[in-house]
Every structure is written in C-alpha cells, then in structure tokens.
Amino acid sequence: MPNRLAHEKSLYLRQHADNPVDWYPWGEEAFRVAREQDKPILLSIGYSSCHWCHVMEHECFENPEIAQLQNELFVNIKVDREERPDLDELYMNALQAMTGSGGWPLNIFLTPDGKPFYGGTYFPPEDRGQLPAWPRVLVAVAQAYRQRREEVERAADDLVAYLQQQTRPPLSPTALREQFLDEAARNLVPHYDREHGGFGTAPKFPSPMQLEFLLRTYRRAGAPRALEMVLQTLTAMARGGIHDQIGGGFHRYAVDDAWLVPHFEKMLYDNALLARIYTLAYLASGAAICRQVAEETFAYLLREMHGSHGGFFSAQDADTGEGEGAFYLWTPEEIEAVVGPEEATLVCRYFGVTPQGNFEGRSILHVPDDPALVATEFGLSPDELAHRIARARALLYEARSQRPWPARDEKVIVSWNGLAIRAFAEAGTAFDRPDLLATAERAAQFIQENLWDGRTLFHVWEDGEARFSGFLDDYANLVNGLLSLYEATFDPRWVDWARLLTDLMLERFLDPEAGDFFDTPADGEKLIVRPKTFVDQSTPSGNGSAAEALLRLGTLLGERRYTDRAVAILERYAPIAVEHPIACGQLLLAMDFALGNPHEIAIIGDPTLPETRALLRVVYGNYIPNRVLALRHPEDEEAARSIPLLADRTLVDQRPTAYVCRQFVCQRPVTTPRELADQLGVRIPDE
C-alpha cells in the first residue's frame, strides 16, 4: 500500500510513495507522533534528479526488512530540498558541523523537538569499505537515543547553539575599498586548475559566479590573464562530457578534473547561470564558441525545460531504467547506425567515441581535440567540419529521442526562474534575439499571475498550486531578473514590481541586529534556527543576490535606502569574501558593483527608430557590468515620474539622445553611437 507521500505534490516525495518505509511529510503530525512514542526522527532530504538518492532508495528504503527496522525505531520524514531549501540549509549546516562534509541524500537524526544529533549522506545496505551498513547505523543511533539520552540531548543542544551563533558571526564592518577586489582576485588564482580550467580538483563544479568575477576583474583592471582563465574554463567545459554535445545544456558537475564524466542530472539553475556567463564572456571577448554554446543552452532550455504555461521546470533526472546516464551514452555501432558507415568515422573521431568507451563500456560524447586538428586530419575546412558535425548532431538527437527519457521534475521554482529570466533577457539584447526576450517576459508574467497574490511571493508552483511562502533568494533572484527585463523592454511595470518585492524583502527578511538578511520570512515556520546564508552553494547566496538587487534598483531609482542597505551587508562580509572568494563569488560581484561607480545611462527616443536602436546597441553589445539603463519615449511623461533617472531629459536637436552620469557627475548629452561609446569606454559593436 502507498504510504503518506502518495498525495504529495512533489515528484521526489511521490517517488517514495510505494516504499515500505512509513514516511511522513514534514509537518506537525510527524513530530506529534515522535513525542507521543518517544522516538527519534529520521529526516531524509533529497531531490528528484539525485542519483545517489535513487540508489539508497532502491537498496535500503525499498528493502522490506530494512524498512521494518526503520519503522520500529524511528518516525521517518521525507523532504524535497527543492520545496524546502530552508530545511535543507539548516540540517545540511548541522551535518557539516558534525562531520565536516555533506551532500545528498542527507540523512539526519533528530530529537522529537527537531534538534539534530547524528547524520550522514549515503549508506549502503551492507558494510562497504569505510561506509557502515544502514541497518547497523539505525540500531546504533536508536540505542544511543535510548541508553544515553542525556548525552544525546546535550550534544543536540550544543549543536543548535553553534548553528544559532553561525547566523550572527562576530564580524566588524569594514569600509569597502577597491583593493579588496584585487586581493580577492589574487586569492582566487591558487584555486585555478591551470591544465583543465575551473577551480579545485575532482569533483569539478561549474563556478559561474567566480568566472563572472574574473570577467569583472578583466574589465575593471585590464587584466588579460583573468579573461584567459574564463575562456579556458568555458572552452574546456564546452568540449567536455559535462556539456551535452547532442542536446545542449550542461549536467550538474564532473566527477573528474577534466570535465569528462558528469553526474548526469540537468538542473535549471546551472543552465541559466552558465548560459548567462557564456553570454557575458562573448560580450567581453567576441569568442564565437561562447555565443554558440550560450545559444545552444538557451535552445535546450526552451526545448526541454520550458512549460507551455511560460515557466521553467526545475530538473531532469540522471537515471533511466537503463541505468545512470544511459540516455547520453553511445557506442561506435550506435553512431554508425544513425549517421552511416562513411560519416561514422568522422563523428566518432570528433566526439571521442571508441570501442572500449570511457564510461561503463560506452562513450560519453566530448571533443577531446581541437576541431581545427580534426578538420586537418580529414582534409576539411573548418566550415565543412562544422556543417557535417551539425548535421550529425541533429540525426543523433533524433535517434536519442527514441530512447526512454530521463524523468523531468516539472515544479516551477521562483528563485531558479529568476535566474532564467535574467539570462534570457540579457541574451535577448546581447544577441538581438526578440524570441529570447519574449521568453523572459512570459516567465515573469507566469510568476506574477500564479505565484504572487499582491502581497506574498510563493516559492514553488506544482500541479497548478502555488505553495510555501517565498524565501530570500526567491525575492532577490526575481528582482534581479525583473531589472534585467526592464533594461531590455523598458516596460515600467517590471520596475514597479521589483520595487514592491524589494520593500517586502526588507520588511520580511531583514535581521535588524546584524543588518543582513535571513533566508526565511519573519512570518514563516519557526525552526530551531532561522537560517541565513552568505556563502554560495550551487546557486548564488541569498545575501549576495539581495545586495546586488538592492544596488541595481537603488542606482536605477536614485534611492539611497536601497544602496545603503546593500553596502552595509557588503561591509559586514567583506573580509570573509576577500579571503574566501571560492565561497563568496556573489558577494564579490555585488562588491564590484558597489565600488565600480556604475554608469547611469538614460536614453530619450522612440525605441522603434533605427537611431535609438543604434544607441542601445552600444550598451547591449558590450560588456559593461556596472551600469543601469533606462529609456523614455519623448512623449511618455509617466516614465520620468516613475524613474527619476529619466526626469528632465529631452531630445537634442530632435534626435534620440543618450545621457551618461557617473558618481554624481553627468557628461554632456550625445546623439551618436561613437560619442556614446567614447563616454562608456567601449567599442561600437560590429565595427
């Protein structure tokens, strides 16, 4: 019989509905039963596309004997981390404090009042190397709870006290200085993998915030090495197995240094962040591969992760019934059957497909050698090679589509959609792609109509229902997305909504004592600790994203209360961010904006006129990270009232006109792209 999870909205929870484990969803009922039966709680947290979550479910939670033991000794709760990032953050911090590491599945044991006292990640059904068997862990934890209750409860209280202290570390605010940015860049360099690009060793994760910080370093300091590091990383990732060479988009991370073998799940947040950094790198460098990969990633998101309602889905699984990653793997025989024997030699050479394979006897497609070298080997021009590979990719994609597809989690998460809205809006202007811009508008419209009630932003939409009051990163990422959408469309409703969301963010999330933000709203569920993040995880930190949103909105509207709050956050965390740039990339991006004396660009003109578009193209076609942009039609008086940057600006000689201000100083109005480019210190695109 199905357990209590059968009627949950979450795909991940429903995946466990037929387990013999007597799972409860998170809620008062489970805690009441734990108190009444005086049992400890097993809290198990994961997500639908998590490979090792599936492995542990199959090996342990589907095992009747293990499930019976689990039911006898514990009250069992299952949580989808994507639905409840607050619970995941809280108990992951607890696990890391206990063990020094973390990951998913997260299995943590709690007292009946929710205090953690022991935990781990994946456990096998029998002892395996250094990993103890799950049944042995269950028995040992239950015995400790029964026989050493005082010790367990004291340890739990100490851990909670530690977690509470971590939300308000004893920091002394430090005035921001440009030298901080230089120091952070220097501190990032030792983490850089000079051979394969990226940061650290295996497993190798994409680091879009750190790469963007390097782009900003290149722009700010004229440091060519910073740009080289970005391009080396993005090129290596593009050619690696972490990049889906056939369908576009990126897998979650690589288990090796060289980006070859991925964990095969695909997440919306990774692809939104990576599509955007490839777009920015193209603007900064003109590298064709960056534009190509960006547009292929947007195409993937539109084709496979975009709902007919306009919102973006959250994830695609790593597994199918054929096994982990089977959907993406090929043999030479399979390639030949699709493209024909003559073409197969070229395709296998290009994508590194061999008889022995590179993953469980089959091949993960990647581009092991420079395409120019392959073209020379086969006596082809680069254009001829690109054409034949593109034709082969289309055929392979069609053939792959006949395989069993990985499951797709169709929940719509506001914070991740905010990242996508920003990426699509900025790429729409960078690449002059109205279709990408329209996609961003539809996603914002969907959220406004389905996850916003005029006073509260909700976190997730599943099966027609908006659920869970929004978290800090829902507000912050959506505001950043809306500001990018305004700068692409100049529709003032997006600024109006961004302002309202920002005011609610200040009202509901601000810690008045520390001056930064909690992750959860003041009127949200009361947890043992109210979590707070300033360190990036797979997505930008809530405080870092909020600081950037406050700076952008405050600069656009000329509102010091926004920018002052952002600076207070940055001054609080500046020493940590500078010392640990790998962990605090988003805070460094906001710091760069705060210290960068942003360009305030106002354009007066009819946006449909070629002359106005030419002025906009100077802004859109260049990498200008620290700027805000507003536009007013000469006959639109309301725009000037809602956005002060546009007030008292008029046409010069009846021609579309650009006004550039910086650090309280305005330059003379200009009417030509050349004059505007000179004021901004950039080139005229396509020149």
TrEMBL record:
This is Thioredoxin domain-containing protein. Residues 2-163 form the Spermatogenesis-associated protein 20-like TRX domain. It comes from Thermomicrobium roseum. InterPro entries: 6-hairpin_glycosidase_sf, 6hp_glycosidase-like_sf, Ssp411, Ssp411-like_TRX, Thioredoxin-like_sf. GO terms for biological process: carbohydrate metabolic process.
